[in-house]
UniProtKB/TrEMBL annotation:
<dbReference type="GO" id="GO:0005886">
    <property type="term" value="C:plasma membrane"/>
</dbReference>
<dbReference type="InterPro" id="IPR011990">
    <property type="entry name" value="TPR-like_helical_dom_sf"/>
</dbReference>
<keyword id="KW-1070">Brassinosteroid signaling pathway</keyword>
<dbReference type="InterPro" id="IPR011009">
    <property type="entry name" value="Kinase-like_dom_sf"/>
</dbReference>
<keyword id="KW-0449">Lipoprotein</keyword>
<protein>
    <recommendedName>
        <fullName>non-specific serine/threonine protein kinase</fullName>
        <ecNumber>2.7.11.1</ecNumber>
    </recommendedName>
</protein>
<dbReference type="GO" id="GO:0009742">
    <property type="term" value="P:brassinosteroid mediated signaling pathway"/>
</dbReference>
<keyword id="KW-0067">ATP-binding</keyword>
<keyword id="KW-0547">Nucleotide-binding</keyword>
<dbReference type="Pfam" id="PF25575">
    <property type="entry name" value="TPR_BSK1_C"/>
</dbReference>
<dbReference type="InterPro" id="IPR000719">
    <property type="entry name" value="Prot_kinase_dom"/>
</dbReference>
<keyword id="KW-0519">Myristate</keyword>
<dbReference type="GO" id="GO:0004674">
    <property type="term" value="F:protein serine/threonine kinase activity"/>
</dbReference>
<feature type="domain" description="Protein kinase">
    <location>
        <begin position="59"/>
        <end position="325"/>
    </location>
</feature>
<keyword id="KW-0418">Kinase</keyword>
<dbReference type="InterPro" id="IPR001245">
    <property type="entry name" value="Ser-Thr/Tyr_kinase_cat_dom"/>
</dbReference>
<dbReference type="Pfam" id="PF07714">
    <property type="entry name" value="PK_Tyr_Ser-Thr"/>
</dbReference>
Amino acid sequence: MGCQCSKLTPCCWDSQFKAAVLEVPDVENEEKSEVDNLPAFHEFTFEQLKNATSGFAVENIVSEHGEKAPNVVYKGKMQNQRRIAVKRFNRVAWPDARQFLEEAKTVGQLRHNRLVNLLGCCCEGDERLLVAEYIPNETLAKHLFHWEAQPMKWAMRLRVVLHLAQALEYCTSKGRALYHDLNAYRILFDEDSNPRLSTFGLMKNSRDGKSYSTNLAFTPPEYLRTGRVTPESVIYSFGTLLLDLLSGKHIPPSHALDLIRDRNLQSLTDSCLEGQFSENDGTELVRLASRCLQYEPRERPNPKSLVAALTPLQKETEVPSHVLMGVPHSTSVSPLTPLGEACSRRDLTAIHEILDNIGYKDDEGVTNELSFQMWTDEMQDTLNIKKKGDSAFKQKDFRTAIELYTQFIDVGTMVSPTVHARRSLSYLMSDMPQEAISDAMQAQIISPVWHIASYLQAVSLAALGMDNEAQVALKEGTTLEAEKKTSNAEQK
């Protein structure tokens, strides 16, 4: 049956739903809630996170507002190939280092497959950084408000709110009922396109004390009165997200409630959803939103009852999220290029031939600040060392190549990812995989999206017996190489 918003029964705005909601029994979750394969919370050094993000490179920024965001989030990669997201706070945030550390450790104890779990933090000098799982498939805001390929399906929207309710129920059960500024930017889609709630919002706010950065029209009324966030405030924000998913727009709650009272629900429902849900389902979701948006906090439902209300509404439960979202699955791999194929086979001879043919064209754009004195005297000597290293590399005299490339790198007047890549392969040819992985990582620090750096990491990791990590690096190299080809084609 198609959506017939104008025929929704008056029950969705009747006063009977303003009554407080009783506790309901626990709902069995089919999926395992605890996440076993994640490491324990860890304190990182600033140098580790700087290296993981290629020196906090602009190319690695994933914040919605880029460098202009007050606290910038970067993607990064540790030496074991684990992808991470690093939130770097501005220098005036969190003046109390002990408070920051205690808060991060507490949130870091949470582990759930509905959360973007916190893996660690860094607290050195004025630096305050949080480290979380890296979630690759964008935010709910992106998929809901700024979609390109297809609008989000009704079944997926219902799955989003159920996963969110389950995340809030888990957090509440662990004594973390407060969530600051719950909105569509806080929900991210993982490699399987399952929605997860960011744990960054579970951190108590820092110096400014503000719990909401969004427009005041979306702020819980009690927060406007007292300036304090409560568990009931989180439910109010959940109600605004229900409106977002129902309408496909960011509608102020007061306006939405007016539409509900006037029975003008046609204006409240996303036209892209026509025919995807029944009158009863529409009624139920509007009713649930109305309950969450009650003016009196005590009249709003709790997370447990939200889970109970949303579970029976789930549609197409057997269909994977990536299918509903129309997003390529993480297991789908692009065809391997000759370089990718050579790395997959660990064919060092073939890799050598390709690197030799490529030369230094991928070093274009790498900046090197050199004084005139260096150009006239030291620079020529340094370039001569590199040329000799290149000659040894070409002739497969890898021990000599290592010595000469090391001299070039140690001078430090020029930075070249290609030299590190060539020395990395030379180390592999000399059965020195640990040195090879270090050079491959350094090449990526210099050039964050360079596919050859990832490919060489894959071969080095395989040589170290780390086959799972090698497969991750190989896949990343394939993805980066495909993205480079697409970008080059668009520029032509």
